[in-house]
Design a protein that fits this description.
The chain has 140 residues and is mostly helical. The protein folds into two domains: 73 residues, Winged helix-like DNA-binding domain superfamily/Winged helix DNA-binding domain (Arc Repressor Mutant, subunit A, Orthogonal Bundle); 43 residues. The chain has five helices and three strands, in the order αβααββαα. A three-stranded antiparallel β-sheet has the order 1-3-2. α1 packs across α2 and α1 crosses α3. The radius of gyration is 30 Å and the shape is elongated.
């Protein structure tokens, strides 16, 4: 499904609610809405959460299923009509840049640290002659 923006998805969602309520004579469940709109259950749940936050719909728990009601259909008009897909790309690029910066920082720390050969030489010397190890505890 192409992301057509929350405004048009809200209209689709509320239309599906009305049709299901008319045909079934009861409030719609998430699965019924997802099947009618041919959306995935996850996408439908995401849309329902955003619409509930906007005050368009109301959710009620009935048994073990959520049922949906239209609370204020006019609140749909307060939702921006433009599709904001570049925001997602900006977020992806920001996270990618952060990861690259961390990787570069780790590489820099590895280059600054003692060479592995020096470290292994010190360990080998300590194993061969334990008395050569400097003791940090003054009571020893």
């Amino acid at each position: 499904m192409a992301d057509s923006g929350l405004y048009s998805q809200a209209h689709l969602f509320t239309s599906a609610l009305r049709i299901i309520e008319h045909m079934q004579k009861r409030p719609a469940s998430l699965k019924e809405i997802a099947d009618m709109l041919d959306f995935s259950a996850e996408e439908t749940a995401r849309i329902s959460r955003r619409l509930e936050e906007s005050g368009v719909i109301k959710t009620m728990l009935s048994g073990n299923q959520e049922r949906f009601f239209i609370k204020d259909h006019l609140a749909i008009e307060n939702i921006p009509k433009d599709v904001k897909t570049p925001a997602m790309m900006e977020e992806v690029m920001r996270v990618k840049a952060e990861k690259e910066a961390k990787l570069n920082q780790l590489e820099g720390l590895l280059k600054k640290g003692p060479a592995k050969t020096d470290l292994f030489a010190e360990l080998d010397k300590a194993f061969k002659d334990p008395s050569s190890i400097k003791k940090t505890n003054p009571l020893d």
